[in-house]
Each structure stands twice: as C-alpha cells, then as structure tokens.
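User: Here's a chain of 124 residues. Predict its fold as tokens.
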Amino acid sequence: MQGYELIKKIEMEKSKHPERVFIKWWRKEEDWLDFDLASRFVETLDYSAKIDGFDLLDINQMWRILEQRCNGRVTKVQKDDGSYVLMYTPPKGAEMEERMPEYPYSPETLLMILDAETDNNFVD
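Assistant: Prediction complete.
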C-alpha cells in the first residue's frame, strides 16, 4: 500500500475504532516493525513509502506490548485520584530526554519508553 490508499484504510479503521490511537506498521522486505501515534503517522507519511501492513492498537494493547518488552522495568500504578502513572527504570545506556521518578500514563509516554527500550529499533 502506498500514499492515498494507505491513508484511506487507516482513516477508515480509525473511524470504526476511535480508541485505537497507535499504529503498528511493517514492510516485508525489512524484518522490523515500527510503532507511532496513528495521527502523527498520517501527518508525516511519505506518500511514496510502501507499507505492507498495519494494525491500529488501543492504549491497553500498547501497554501489554511495552510491559512484555520491559521485563519488569515498568509498572503501572493507580494513584489515589484514580489516575495511573508509570514507574520506569530505563536500561543502562538508554537515551531519554528526561528521567523522572514517575511518568504520566499517556500514549506519548508509552512510545517514549518503547523507543528507550528498543533504541528506536523494534524487532519482533
């Protein structure tokens, strides 16, 4: 899939499942996956890029991927007000913009931690 065809399919899926804010996408010739916010992916897509497949994920699905990948270095904690935060210990040498004792439980934070864990190179 390329360009307009890909955007059309993504937008159709997003309209059916608005809670799915992440995109997991891949190309066959390269043995890797990539994850992004679906909205950012659509905004920055190079229309000449060939994408062989994608799935849209909700925050709970992305959390499970991250939790499995981190091997115990991340936990989701419910605060007294009912909101969630993430407690995360990055691996040695991980590049992160900011290290904090706790992080908000948000789509952006999940991607930031996944990038730190995989050195921006997720391999399934």
